[in-house]
Amino acid sequence: MSHAPFVHLRLHSAYSLSEGAIKIKDLVKFCQAEAMPAVAVTDSGNLFGALEFSLAAQGAGLQPVIGCQLAISRDGEGNRNGTRPPPDELVLLVQNEAGYLNLMTLVSDAFLETEPGEPPQVGFDRLAALSGGLIALTAGMQGEIGRCLISSQQEAAAAALARLKSIFPDRLYMEIQRHGLAHEQAIENALLDLAYAQDVPLVATNECYFPRGEDFEPHDALLCIAGSTYVSSDDRRRLTPEHRLKSAGEMRDLFADLPEAVANTLVIAQRCAYFPDRVKPILPAFPTEEGRSEAEELRNQAQTGLEHRLEAHVYEPGMDDESRKAAAAPYLERLVFELGVIEQMGFPGYFLIVADFIQWSKNQGIPVGPGRGSGAGSVVAWSLTITDLDPLRWGLLFERFLNPERISMPDFDIDFCQDRRDEVIRYVQNKYGRDRVAQIITFGKLQARAALRDVGRVLEMPYPQVDRICKLVPNNPANP
Question: Element (H or E) spanning 115, and its range?
Answer without folding.
Answer: none
